Amino acid sequence: MDPGARARDWSEIQERMLVPLYEAVYDRLEVGPATRLLGLNCGSGLALLMAASRGAAVTGVDSASPERLALARERLLPDATPGRGGDGGAGTRARTPAELLDDPPSATDGARTDAYSLVTAFEPVGGLAGDAERLGDLLAAVLPLAGRGAAVVLTGWGPPERCATSSVLRVAAKLADPLRGARSRPPARRDVLEEVAGRAGLKPDGSGRVACPFGYADLDSAVRGLLSTGLFDAAVSATDAKQVDKELTEALHPHRRPDGTVWMPNVFRYLVARVP
């Protein structure tokens, strides 16, 4: 798939599925004008835009997709005002991790006023092999930019029995690794978020679960949205795009409603941890 089209599918179809998670976290942590937020793996910036609408100063970083990052910049730039300057100012911007680390906040003291007070990782861990380790590496790089006591939010898939999408994701596992994947998609370890937080030196400070159903207008939208997540990339590499499309469509049929829409209830878990 063309990277630009895939980024648009993410932005227009899939990214909104986690809006209830963003809202629950922002409500719990009272995100507002006093918040300096750093969004990791920010995608095309919807979560950043929601925080900015509450008055927060937001910065997003993403290295996985230049196309998604470009969309995030487009979303944030129209909100730029003097002192809250789009991609180049201190208020709203989307950057690569390298750009962030090359141009960090000026002070180094953990009590500084320009440190980030909230770091979010809304891309759920547990869907791809090694994603928890990659998140840990990213946290190690950026946490020096957060102030003491800053909240760090990590998110993951809920129990497979409460995530209807788990049955669909088995297609990706089966095609990517027929011998191992045919059994099932291994569920994320129940304490994976605590493990990531512990390795990063963070102190857990509460958790929650949020219902985030995946709803699509039709089967085509569901296939495009799910493919845009990257969770099926290994399957496409191991087989071919047509086979993945075919088997993904078949796996979605049980979730199709009489009106043609596709509906999959899911529960996601988040952990709030603090920078010591």
Automatic annotation (TrEMBL):
MF (Gene Ontology): methyltransferase activity
Record keywords, A-Z: Methyltransferase, Transferase
GO biological process: methylation
Database matches in InterPro entries: SAM-dependent_MTases_sf
Entry keyword annotation includes Transferase: yes
Annotated segments matching region Disordered: 76-109
Record's protein name: SAM-dependent methyltransferase
